[in-house]
Design brief:
This protein has about 600 residues and is of the alpha/beta class. The chain folds into two domains: about 40-180, 2-Layer Sandwich (Chitobiase, domain 2); about 185-560, Glycosidases (TIM Barrel). It has helices spanning about 1-15, 65-80, 145-155, 200-210, 235-240, 250-260, 320-335, 350-355, 360-365, 370-390, 400, 425-435, 445-450, 485-490, 500, 520-525, 530-540, 550-565, 575-580; strands at about 40-60, 90, 100-110, 125, 135-140, 160, 165-180, 185-190, 215-220, 265-275, 290, 315, 340-345, 395, 420, 440, 505-510. An eight-stranded parallel barrel has the order 8-9-10-13-14-15-16-17, surrounded by five helices. A five-stranded mixed β-barrel has the order 1-3-5-4-7. Helix 4 runs parallel beside helix 6 (about 250-260) and helix 7 (about 320-335) packs parallel to helix 10 (about 370-390). The protein is globular, with a radius of gyration of 25 Å. The two termini are about 25 Å apart. Pfam families: Glyco_hydro_20 (PF00728), Glycohydro_20b2 (PF14845). InterPro entries: Beta_hexosaminidase_sua/sub, GH, Glyco_hydro_20_cat, Hex-like_dom2, HEX_eukaryotic_N. Belongs to the glycosyl hydrolase 20 family.
Length: about 600
């Protein structure tokens, strides 16, 4: 109950209307919307109205992205073949002359507001009940084009194919008032471990927009590969990518950013450094320490490691070349990506790697008495101003402040221009970050890491060779077990925070690291578990009484997964089909 009270205090502080954002209506309808809206009513008896073959979405001028969305949703409405698994108990109005829904009229207060962090995504949707005068037009009102896009998605989910024919109907007598609980609802995708083709990235972003997620955090590079072509440093991709056909060109990046904008999704780039940079070695060997060395010299001593996983190499903060290269990288990335966030990484800086370098050893052992933390701070104090000079907010992984061995002082990363992304120790590290005055993005591995529980990828691991035990019962990976959709859904990212601290939580991101992921399995690893986070951060995970609503969400998520599959997303199932057709029979408790 304390968590519920916290959400209430948080919303009071934000001035959220009717406090409905956190405690959304727990009513389920014959046809539902995912994520569940903050407020939705459907007049009884439930009815639906046929959609005219000439149906159109009319939007105001001034925003080409909204115009594109209107055209896309018009096509979707008229061509989608979605049929609910359980036939809706709805009265369908006869589709005679004058009784068809002809259009959706969209009104936007300011269509020119740019897509940026904190933009207003609220909307109100009304689909009128059919009357003797006909159904007429549905109406959608929003403050911005981005809120209107969220409303268009809601409208699309109120439509389905009825009967044995191809009649398209839309729920009628429906009113929706909706807005997100958190402004940052994202997916982090790693393309450095395994290359993900552009087409698969686009399909993922399209599904994000359908789930009302608004941030694609693109972890582009890592120790294993550097797949993005940068005009100022072309050698990085030439010598660091897996191959010529596994690179992202400037044109690819532009295509991805524009595609995302048309779905109200921001693209936040990350070039991780100074750790995770072995892939920079081919282009700039003088800037990288411990490159080419085996990552774990002594398998029985974790402290001997040169990297967190295979692929040892870190930028040398004492090398002038390091700063020449990172300046070019930041300049190119902030030119290619217009978003006001720039993710600079800085996670898992490994002491062992730096300690192999003679210049660094001299720095540490010399009369100056330098430390590894001072070495990292030297680097961060150079990178942070580069980022902010481009009118960007610098985002770092939590390690830069919280790592027990190598960290920087708060003076190097001023809270006013810095956001920290948490991934360790669940709510404890979130608490440490916001208590220090930083804004936080939550990606707690115990809840939001989608790669966990699939076993480890290391070779010649004898630990598995024991027929008398189930090695590593937690799924054979450091962050196991597998994070089920229920685990994702139930996480309260502001757990244990005061109201003032909760205001600093921008939202969260599910994360997919790709050591064991490529395009062949991408969709199933992400969906529908990312959908679970999408709803929890849009309208909360509790009902009007303050109870976790995962039980009520099960059938709705089943249906939403079914619709996503019909839209071309290879989302994994959450239950046997038998369960959906027999309500309650697959529950744990009767």
């Amino acid at each position: 109950m304390a968590s519920v009270l916290l959400q209430l205090l948080f919303l009071i502080a934000l001035g959220s209307p009717a406090l409905l954002t956190a405690l959304a209506d727990d009513t389920s309808f014959p046809v539902n919307v995912w994520p569940k809206p903050v407020s939705m009513s459907w007049a009884e008896p439930h009815t639906a109205v046929p959609v005219s073959p000439s149906f159109s979405i009319v939007v105001p001028p001034g925003n080409p992205y909204l115009a594109s969305a209107a055209a896309r949703y018009t096509r979707l409405l008229l061509t989608e073949r979605y049929r609910p698994i359980v036939r809706p108990a709805v009265n369908v109005t006869a589709g005679g002359a004058g009784a068809l829904l002809e259009k959706l009229a969209v009104t936007v207060t300011d269509p020119e507001v740019p897509l940026q962090h904190g933009v207003d995504e609220s909307y109100a949707l009304v689909v009128p009940a059919a009357s003797a005068g006909g159904a007429g037009a549905a109406t959608l009102t929003a403050a911005t084009a981005w809120g209107a896009m969220r409303g268009l998605e809601t409208y699309s989910q109120l439509a389905w194919r009825h009967g044995r024919g191809n009649l398209i109907v839309v729920a009628a007598g429906v009113r929706v008032e909706d807005r997100p609980l958190y402004p940052h609802r994202g997916l982090m995708l790693d393309t450095g471990r395994n290359y993900i083709p552009v087409a698969d990235i686009l399909r993922t972003i399209d599904a994000m927009g359908a789930n009302k997620m608004n941030v694609f955090h693109w972890h582009i590079t890592d120790s294993q590969s550097f797949p993005i072509e940068l005009p100022s440093a072309p050698e990085l991709a030439e010598k660091g990518a897996y191959g010529e056909d596994m690179r992202y060109t400037v044109e690819d990046v532009s295509r991805i950013v524009e595609f995302a904008m048309r779905r109200g999704v921001r693209v936040v780039p990350e070039i991780d450094s100074p750790g995770h940079t072995a892939s920079w070695t081919g282009a700039y060997p003088e800037a990288v320490t411990c490159a080419g060395k085996f990552w774990l010299p002594n398998a029985s001593d974790w402290n001997s490691r040169l990297a967190a996983e295979p692929g040892a190499g870190q930028l040398n903060p004492l090398s002038p070349k390091t700063y020449e290269v990172i300046a070019n990288v930041v300049n190119d990335l902030t030119t290619l990506f217009p978003d006001d966030f720039y993710h600079a990484g800085a996670d898992e800086v490994t002491p062992g790697c730096w300690l192999t370098d003679p210049s660094i050893k001299a720095y540490l052992d010399g009369g100056r008495g330098g430390t590894l933390s001072q070495l990292l701070e030297r680097y961060v104090r150079a990178v942070h101003p580069l980022v902010t000079s481009k009118n960007r907010t610098a985002v770092f992984w939590e390690d830069v402040l919280l790592d027990a061995t190598v960290n920087v002082s708060a003076a190097a990363i001023p809270p006013a221009t810095t956001v920290l992304q948490t991934w360790n120790n669940g709510p404890n590290n979130t608490k440490l970050i916001v208590a220090a005055g930083y804004r936080a993005i939550v990606s707690s591995a115990s809840f939001y890491y989608l790669d966990c529980g699939h076993g480890d990828f290391l070779g010649n691991d004898s630990g598995y060779d024991n027929p008398n035990s189930d090695f590593k019962e937690e799924g054979g990976s450091w962050c196991g077990p597998y994070k089920t959709w229920q685990r994702v859904y139930d996480y309260d990212i502001a757990y244990g925070l005061t109201a003032d601290e909760a205001r600093l939580v921008l939202g969260g991101e599910v994360a997919l690291w790709t050591e064991q992921v490529d395009a062949a399995v991408l969709d199933g690893r992400v969906w529908p578990r990312a959908s679970a986070m999408a709803e929890a951060l849009w309208s909360g995970n509790r009902d009007a009484a303050g109870r976790k609503r995962y039980a009520e969400a099960t059938d709705r998520l089943f249906d939403w997964r079914h619709r996503m599959v019909g839209r071309g997303v290879r989302a994994e199932p959450i239950q046997p089909l038998w369960c959906r057709t027999r309500p309650g029979m697959c529950n744990l408790v009767q």
